[in-house]
Structure formats: structure tokens, C-alpha cells
Amino acid sequence: MPTRLFLVLAAAAAALLLLFWRPGAPPASEAPPSSSPGGEAFRQRLVAIGDLHGDIDNAKRVLRMARLTDKTDRWAGGNDIFVQTGDCVDRGTFAREIYELWYRLRSEAHAAGGRVINLLGNHEVMNAIGDWRYVTQADIKHWGGVDNRQHELSTDGWLGKDWLANYSISALVPLSPFPSAPTLSFQHGSLRPSFPNLTPYPDAINRLGHSLLTRALTPPLAKPYPPNPYSGLPAGTTREEAELYDGGGPLWWRGLADVEDDRIVCGWAKELQEKIGVRRVIGGHTPDFDKIVHRCNASVIIIDTGISYAYGGVLSALEIIYTLTPPFAPPANGTDEPHVLRAGEKYIEREEVNAIYPTGKKRIALEVRQIVL
């Protein structure tokens, strides 16, 4: 027989249970919080890789390291954006294979909702105009000889056609399709704020690059130098096209990378931000063999780390992860439907900038702000 004390305690416990129990209420660990941050409503990942100079093996290693390709070198980046900033040719042997890889990955990425953006470097244009000072004999032999190499580079060849159709000198890349999206500028060298054909950006630069490249690749191509005399820019080159290829143009200029005074460089960066409306200016061309260089709160980033075996630098890739998140979780509605972004609503914008190395990631910058879409 239960004691009188036990009966009293049991009755009290039952009363408390009736007082606080609600039918259908989830356990405390499963209940949706009323004011915690919600899940990402939009996510975009961008990866950029610098100069490769004929090294197909390291090119593939970097792509796999950045999770853009799988172990069979097929696209695995989903809807990621991949930017390569030129100088795939010269100094090494296997430039042709690198261009073939971009050709294939471009269609694979498109099918998966991603995007491959290819830029021309000064060495691509050098090869187009017949300046072969840095072309190795192994590369020429691997390409099948001078005549076959020039044919494939011409407007009659597959690579010349691909350069004209799918490569540019500069690229303006938004991180989302929404009007409020931050944009990034890419070019091979440094972008000079006083360049006379800077705006409208990047159309003015790319029109000049396309017309200069068309002149250079239209047969008969200039005889390679060496052993032949250097013929210079192709006949009919305009003053504006010559300025594009000049030392102050976006193919050759190094100012954002090699001017030591940060006050000067940050002043240029601010001027570029105001003139062309970008958040960051990203290029290659000037190698640091140990790391990706960033300046002025990462408004300037230089991604050439001498990846090719011709230099022996560190393998690297730049990664930018951009997300939009509602400030608070939406009310529970019993469904798993994704959040629909709406113009005029507030979101938390998060932009994470990382350098990827064989040893892992290193944070370059993190910017979080509230925006109105």
C-alpha cells in the first residue's frame, strides 16, 4: 500500500504536468527559435586562379584543390563562377592542354549552372602578334611545329576562334543577379585609373582588345620572333589599340601590385571604385611566390603566385563566398520551401574572401552588412 506521502507527491506531479503540457508541442530542443538568424536565402561562390604558364598538371591540381573539378578533372563546382586571369601560355610546355581544358570546362560548367570566365594576359597577346620570346622549343614541338601552332592560333584555327569568342581583356563580375550586388573587376595586370579608355567599363577595353586580336590573328600571321625580326603590332593598329597594349594598359601595368606606398595604391583603388563601381580589383601578372597579395582592405587583390613549374611558387586560388540571409528566421509554416528573395526587404549580406593553399584556407577579408534588396 502506498504511503500517504507518496500519494501526495504523485498528485502534485500530475497537476504540474496538466498545467504545462500542450498537445502537439515539440520538445524544447526541436522548437524553432523566434529570433535566431535564418538560413541562407542566396549563396554564390567564386574562384579565381592566376598565371599558369604552360603547366597543365599544376592547373589541374589547383582546380581540384579549389573543389571546382573532381578526381577525373570534370566540373564539380555546381553553380560556382570560375575566373582565370590569363597567361596560360609561354615558359612551360603544355599551354595547348590548358586551353583545351577551359574549352571543355566551359560547357560542363554551363550545363551545371556555373560559369567559366577566361581573360587574356599579355603573353596571349604576345603570341598573337608573333612575339615568341618566351615560347619554349618543347612547347613548339608539343604543338606540332611552328606552322601548326600558328594555324591553331589564327582566325582559321580552333584556339584563335575560341579566344575571339570567349576571352576578353577585362571582366566585370557581379556576385548576385540583384541590383544591389557588389561587383568585382578582373584583368590580367593592374587597372590604371587614368587609362584613357577605362569607361564605359569593361566594354571600351574589351572592344579594343577584340579588334586588336582580330588584326593579329587574321592570316597571314606575323613570322615568329625569334628567329625572325620583331614586327611589332599588326598593320592598321589604331592609337587606342596601341595604348591598350602599352605599358600603362591593363595587360602590362603593375602599379597596384608593385608601388610600395599604400597611400598611393589605396587612392587609386578608391578612384577605381568610384569610376567603375566595383568593390574589388583583382589581377595577376606580378607574382609573389609565397602568397596571394591583398591591399587596401582587400579592395586590391593580386593572385599570381607563380603556380607554374617554371617558377616553383605556391599553388593557390582565390575564393569568395557571398550570401544573403534574412535577418530573422521566417515563421514556421510546416514546409521546407526555400525562402524567396523579395525586393525592398532587408537581408544580411556576407562576403567572405579566402586564399586557398595546399595547407588549407586563409581568411583575407570578411564583410557583413545589412542591405535592402
UniProtKB/TrEMBL annotation:
**InterPro entries found in the cross-reference section:** Calcineurin-like_PHP, Metallo-depent_PP-like
- One of the record's GO molecular function terms: hydrolase activity
Q: Output the superkingdom of the source species.
A: Eukaryota
Which keywords has UniProt assigned to this entry? Signal
Q: Where is the signal peptide?
A: 1-27
Calcineurin-like phosphoesterase domain segment(s): 45-287
**Record keyword Membrane present:** no
What protein am I looking at? Calcineurin-like phosphoesterase domain-containing protein
Organism for this UniProt entry: Vanrija humicola
Q: What is the lineage of its organism?
A: Eukaryota, Fungi, Dikarya, Basidiomycota, Agaricomycotina
